[in-house]
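Can't paste images in this forum, so I'm doing it all in text. The chain is below; anyone willing to post the predicted structure tokens underneath?
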Amino acid sequence: MPFEEQVLKLLGELNQRQKDFQTEMQNVKLDVKEIRTDVDKMKLDVKEIRTDVDKMKLDVKEIRTDVDKMKLDVKEIRTDVDRMKLDVKEIRTDVDSVKWNLEEVKSDVKGLKEENHLIKQAVLDPNKKAEKIMDEQQIIYRILGEHEVSIRMLKEKNG
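Text version of the structure:
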């Protein structure tokens, strides 16, 4: 092969390599452009993640604050429950005292009922006796006559 043909052939190959290289470079440029786009997208994603993390930190801080408040509330509730237990204990003591006093009052009422019965009998018995005496006096009046009874009563009064 003559020299010129070889040079032309080499030039053709060189041109083809140059075109291939340019195509390859364009592909690399496109790849770099895609990579830059991906990097920019990743930067945005990282920025969003940071924002989310910051938000989560705030949320965790709020949760801790809420937990602290809940702990205080639970402590107050325990204090209230302890206080209520003491109140219930006092109420039980008072109820026991009232029960004891009620038994005492029941006993007193029972005694008063018995006394009342005796008093009633003591009042009714003289009334019955007085009625009996009055009945007997009426019979005596009828037997002796009113006149004679009146005379005897005057004598006793003047007596």
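Helices lie at 3-144, 146-158. The chain has a mean pLDDT of 90.
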